[in-house]
Design goal:
The complex is a heterodimer of chains A (about 280) and B (about 220).
Chain A lengths: L3 E2 L1 H24 L10 H17 L3 H17 L4 H9 L1 H10 L12 E7 L2 E6 H27 L2 H6 L8 H32 L2 E2 L1 H32 L16 H23 L1
Antiparallel strand pairs in A: 1-4, 2-3
Helix pairs in contact in A: 1-8, 2-6, 2-10, 3-6, 4-5, 4-6, 5-6
Chain B lengths: L9 H25 L5 H13 L4 E3 L5 E3 L3 H8 L1 H19 L7 H23 L8 H32 L14 H34 L7
Antiparallel strand pairs in B: 1-2
Classes of the chains: A mainly alpha (about 280), B mainly alpha (about 220).
Chain lengths: ~280, ~220
């Protein structure tokens, strides 16, 4: 029987543990007494959405780079450890994007003025100025956008962030589903972790690939069965709390002068960046 | 397949948001009309289920591992409209809270995974399993085939969206402003890995889960 390492078990366990660890850290950051944490979540989300749109529309690498520096400055004001923020915003998606964009620096993808060339496997590869510019713009844009989203998530309580969706006129039933989904995710992640620990303790060091797939499929099926059974209990719990088919989301948000000043500054800053990009 | 911010230009993001808004509107109306009040939590549970399904790593021949997306499975179990909402909720939670998939690209990600993947998969499953008994092997095959085709259809749409970027957004000198690869490169890169690896993972896992659920409780497949 073909044997395979239990890499899928380790990866799943690492993934679930990293998820829980990151979520706990995120909630801890959101509870700190920093600048962004003190803003109204609705105003903060709108202002970050403006930044994201500006980063999306800009065509100038340097200006988007300045936006990243500003985002980093905001993270420092919000008491996020600089090392953590840089690692979180420059490693996963930007590193993946870097790997994707490497071929674009060569003339086969981006023709233009050649600045260096070499032979690889009998083929001549030339790096072009336009290719480097394309790759740099792409990477800086992706890193800056990811940074704003990460900073928003780190400085806002997740439950508050989901309630903020009401600002965008999303129906209350959706907001309720978001909130419920968020709670279930943690419950299910716990179940996934226990399932893989169970698999690990039963299979030891090796398991065949097909047996591994069957085990995982069985775990997914049993998770669905448990979820379906849970639905009945959850509905009864909702009824006992007065649910009558209509949804109400309590909003405890309160804006202050400071929030509006911040929003005004963001709009002015964004307008200035867009104006500069047209002049450059 | 989760497109991050910065990969697609504003025009593509805007158009795909515009496409998805009426889809979400219709989905919420249909679900509200057809779903009993007691099944409302089920949509939330379905959303959480489609979120965590990606945490189940599956062994792939060759020693590595991958994960299934689970959109077709959720569509078979909940129906296409409820699945559309469930997958949308999972994608929004992933983008907003965990930085996985972009906020400006939510429309595109939902179009690919909550619309194309879910509806292609569901209707293909219905067509192949047409009137067969709920415990038949044909349904297991239908689930696997539908998952394979639907995942590849979603990957195809994603590749087309990437491939359109250098055409839609470039400088006067022809320099790409967003995803730099044309349609041929984007299609080759995306489709080769989905046709050869990820599609099969999705197919095998979806088929096996349907097979187990048939044995355990076939009422999940009653219409």
């Amino acid at each position: 029987m073909p044997k395979t390492h239990t890499l899928f078990i380790e990866r799943s366990l690492t993934g679930t543990l990293a998820f829980v660890k990151e979520s706990l850290y995120s909630e801890e950051c959101a509870a700190r007494n920093g600048f962004l944490q003190s803003l109204d979540p609705r105003i903060k989300t709108v202002s970050f959405f403006i930044f994201l749109c500006v980063a999306l529309f800009l065509k100038n690498t340097a200006l988007i780079g300045y936006m990243y520096i500003f985002c980093f400055f905001l993270s420092c004001l919000s008491r996020i450890q600089p090392g953590f923020f840089l690692k979180r915003t420059l490693v996963f998606i930007p590193l993946f994007s870097l790997l994707i964009v490497v071929p674009a620096i060569f003339s086969i993808i981006t023709p233009g003025r050649e600045i260096a060339s070499f032979h690889f496997g009998g083929m001549r590869l030339a790096v072009t100025r336009q290719g480097i510019d394309t790759a740099a713009l792409f990477l800086v844009r992706v890193s800056t956008s990811v940074s704003f989203v990460v900073l928003l998530s780190l400085t806002t309580k997740h439950t508050a962030l989901l309630k903020v969706l009401r600002v965008f006129k999303i129906p209350q039933v959706f907001v309720m589903i978001f909130g419920m989904c968020y709670r279930y995710i943690y419950l299910f992640v716990g179940i996934v972790e226990n399932s893989y620990l169970g698999i690990k303790s039963r299979v030891g060091g090796f398991i065949s690939s097909s047996q591994g797939r069957s085990l995982v499929a069985w775990k997914i099926a049993s998770l669905w069965q448990r979820s379906f059974q849970m639905n009945e209990d959850v509905y009864r719990a909702m009824l006992s709390r007065g649910y009558s088919g209509e949804t109400f989301v309590f909003e405890e948000f309160k804006t202050t002068v400071r929030d509006w000043v911040w929003l005004g500054l963001v709009i002015m800053m964004s307008a200035a960046i867009v104006y500069c990009s047209r002049r450059v | 397949m989760h497109i991050p911010d910065g990969y697609l230009g504003p025009a593509t993001c805007g158009v795909l948001y515009a496409v998805m808004i009426p889809v979400w509107g219709i989905a919420s109306k249909i679900v509200k009309k057809n779903l009993k009040a007691k099944h409302v939590p089920l949509v939330a549970i379905g959303a959480a289920f489609s979120f965590v399904i990606m945490m189940f790593n599956v062994p792939i021949p060759g020693g590595t591992s991958g994960h299934a997306v689970g959109g077709v499975l959720v569509a078979i179990l909940l129906g296409p409209w409820a699945a559309c909402i469930a997958v949308t909720v999972a994608l929004v939670v992933q983008a907003l809270l965990f930085g996985d998939g972009g906020i400006t690209a939510i429309g595109a990600n939902c179009f690919n995974m909550a619309f194309v993947l879910v509806f292609t998969g569901y209707y293909l499953y219905k067509a192949i399993s047409f009137n067969s008994p709920v415990t038949s092997k044909r349904r297991v095959f239908a689930a696997g085939a539908a998952a394979y085709v639907a995942l590849n259809a979603a990957a195809f749409c994603t590749a087309v969206e990437f491939g359109l970027q250098p055409v839609l957004h470039h400088t006067a000198q022809g320099q790409a402003l967003y995803s730099p690869y044309g349609i041929t490169v984007a299609l080759t890169a995306m489709m080769s890995e989905h046709l050869l690896v990820f599609g099969w993972v999705e197919a095998v896992i979806t088929a096996l889960v349907v097979k187990y659920l048939q044995k355990q409780d076939s009422s999940f497949f009653q219409e």
